[in-house]
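Bug #77: duplicate submission created two jobs. Keeping one. Sequence:
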Amino acid sequence: MILYEYPLNERVRTLLRLEYLFRRADFLLQRANPFDHHFALLTMFEIMDVVSRQDLKSDLLKDLEKQRQQLLGYRGNPAISEGMLDSVLAEVDAAFDGLSQQLGKPGQALLDNEWLMAIRSRASIPGGTCEFDLPAYYAWQHLPQAQRSADMARWMDAFAPLAMAVELILRLLRDSGTPRKTLAGGGNFQQNLGGRSYQLLRLRVDGKLGVVPETTGHRLMISVRFLRPDADWKLRAAAEDVAFELALCA
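Kept job's structure:
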């Protein structure tokens, strides 16, 4: 089964992009080749571009406080484990404290590193980080893997509170949706949301079916159209019924 996620507002769109970038950076940092660390560094620069939004930190703090208040509302509910509730509340408090205690925007300190900013400015140029353009960077890539890894870990640590908050908010959001089996008749599916506000659509489809979902959505309706790629990956509408799982997360 392949899981597709579609954000139903701009805030969740930003969180999903950040989660993707953090996961990519983490994967690359587990590897030893200088090329892997080069692309991990480029990923870090992408994270810096995303978090440059002035209100991102305050938005996340508001989300965490909202989650905290919702969780506190479950106190005394016999269907809810108090131990599990306390554990999640502790996670929310830790994420809130870590993010709120960080001065300025996440990654702000890295902007003062002239060497990193020189690499960042050249990275937008095709082949702009060659050894003749950035000899100091080329020398860094020839350092022992352990030293490069330590440097990358130190730089990425500037985003650790942000990564914790993003991971937690998305996990709680995903847990709020219940998957249900659905059928797209003739490859098309629509659902009226009945005025209820959702933030994330999650769709699972069997990869063996060879179809790709094209999803659109807004506060009133969601629509999924399944497409089938040809040999050159040009997508055409699938005419047959397609079974899939759908979860709407509020």
